[in-house]
Backbone:
């Protein structure tokens, strides 16, 4: 028992549920094969740090699911996993509301339907909840196995679950973005090329004779490395290509707003500091309309400066307020992702260049 890992029970779920889901994962991942015995209830009690009644309650659910046989003296024996059928359902771990994600979810659903597959959606309220995603994945594999998984890989995504259980999640496609440095074995990727997006931002401003690029950032606190922030990935690309093109990029503005300095305090100060043409790029159209446009409307000096605005994710707001924006090509990504899932596309990774959508002939 000295080398057994103790499972933390400090979760909002019932302790017997944690036992059920953990042991179910062991069985599905092949840690215990058909015919093999699980550790005794006493050993499991020590591993999970709960009493034997809680262990029994958790394991009895797996008996009901036809994964285990339990009998006095014989212990808990894994049954043949052929009892778990594979369905034509596809687990979708992605936000599916709003101007950005609703079109993606709709496109995925349409493409799945064309292949006689149907989507099973995680509740949108839990799309960025690490623990709820894990619970959803466990429920998806409790009594049957889904055809596959399609996921938007945000910073809260439980990548560690997929890395530790490659067999269970081998038919997985990540869509739009994947916030992790390393790819997961056997998973596939249909993504936007965010490095290229940074190059496009610089080219856009250079073609309009803009000499200085400003990128006020969303405030982010819940990331541990560069790859978990797409803003940082895009910023570093803008910085590199701006230097190559001879354009000034205000990196200080990015980092100060990224760490929480309010845009309405800092951006006017930065704009007024230099009397040269400037381009303002924002990670989303919503940020442009909520934080930048009100400054232009209410600040006379800001309004008098030669500014060029460029948004991202091409929502209705860009068209309404007349600034250009980048289309994330969600229909193309959805179709490529489903083709990967069904084996029609054998590529491990496909990257799409974002498409510029022009909403204003002048935008200065």
Residues:
């Amino acid at each position: 028992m000295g080398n057994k890992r103790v499972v933390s029970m400090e979760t909002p779920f019932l302790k017997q549920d944690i036992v059920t889901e953990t042991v179910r994962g062991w069985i599905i991942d092949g840690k215990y094969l058909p015919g093999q015995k699980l550790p005794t209830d006493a050993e499991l009690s020590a591993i999970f740090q709960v009493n034997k009644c809680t262990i029994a309650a958790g394991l009895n659910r797996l008996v009901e699911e036809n994964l285990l046989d339990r009998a006095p003296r014989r212990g808990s024996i894994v049954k043949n996993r052929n009892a778990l059928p594979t369905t034509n359902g596809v687990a979708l771990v992605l936000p599916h509301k709003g101007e950005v994600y609703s079109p993606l979810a709709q496109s995925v659903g349409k493409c799945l339907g064309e292949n006689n597959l149907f989507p099973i959606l995680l509740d949108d309220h839990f799309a960025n909840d690490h623990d709820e995603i894990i619970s959803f994945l466990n429920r998806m594999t409790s009594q049957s196995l889904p055809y596959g998984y399609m996921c938007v890989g945000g910073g809260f995504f439980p990548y560690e679950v997929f890395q530790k259980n490659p067999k269970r999640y081998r038919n997985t496609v990540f869509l739009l973005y994947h916030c992790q440095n390393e790819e997961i074995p056997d998973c596939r990727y249909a993504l936007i090329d965010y490095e290229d997006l940074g190059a496009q931002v610089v080219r856009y401003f250079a073609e309009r004779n803009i000499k200085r690029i400003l990128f006020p950032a969303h405030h982010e606190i819940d990331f541990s490395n560069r790859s978990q922030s797409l803003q940082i990935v895009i910023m570093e690309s803008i910085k590199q290509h701006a230097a190559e093109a001879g354009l000034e990029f205000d990196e200080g503005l990015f980092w100060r707003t990224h760490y929480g300095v309010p845009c309405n305090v800092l951006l006017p100060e930065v704009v007024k500091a230099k009397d040269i043409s400037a381009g303002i790029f924002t990670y989303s159209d919503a940020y442009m309309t909520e934080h930048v446009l009100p400054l232009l409307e209410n600040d006379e000096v800001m309004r008098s400066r030669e500014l060029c605005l460029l948004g991202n994710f091409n929502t209705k707001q860009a068209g309404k307020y007349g600034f250009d924006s980048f289309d994330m090509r969600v229909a193309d990504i959805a179709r490529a992702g489903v083709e990967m899932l069904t084996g029609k596309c054998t590529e491990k990774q496909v990257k799409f260049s974002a498409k510029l959508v022009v909403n204003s002939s002048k935008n200065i």
User: Anything to note?
Assistant: Residues 1-5, 8-12 have pLDDT under 50 and may be disordered.
